[in-house]
Design brief:
four-stranded mixed sheet, 2 helices, alpha/beta, Fe-S cluster assembly protein HesB
């Protein structure tokens, strides 16, 4: 597993970890489902499990379920001002509902592209 992230994201994650000393100090990357714009990957503080793979980046211990890593690949965290950060993977899952990403997704409140 490999994780790429700008220093700004590393700084934010270190601040979150520092403010949550009573929580697990591992950053889990996981598939959170689909949104109007496609697959969504997210981050959470979590305990490391035997079924996880890991990667250390600048003092942060990232973890991901082995099966998700084998399916989706390496992780990139990108800064998208002013929204914040976006988590993406090498092989994102595709929505399997007959809708194109830009032709109507069925999401409430989404007008498409």
């Amino acid at each position: 597993m490999k994780v790429q992230a700008p220093q700004s994201a590393i700084n934010v994650l270190k601040e979150i970890l520092g403010n949550n000393q009573d929580k697990p100090q591992n950053v889990r990357v996981y598939f959170a489902g689909f949104a109007c714009s496609g697959a969504v990957f997210s981050l959470a503080l979590d305990e490391e499990k035997m079924s996880d793979t890991s990667f250390d980046l600048d003092g942060i211990h990232f973890i991901m379920d082995d099966n998700e890593y084998l399916t989706y690949g390496n992780v990139t965290i990108s800064e998208i001002p002013p929204q914040g950060f976006v988590v993406s993977v090498d092989n994102p899952p595709q929505r399997d509902n007959g809708y194109s990403e830009c032709g109507g997704s069925g999401c409430d409140g989404c007008s498409g592209c």
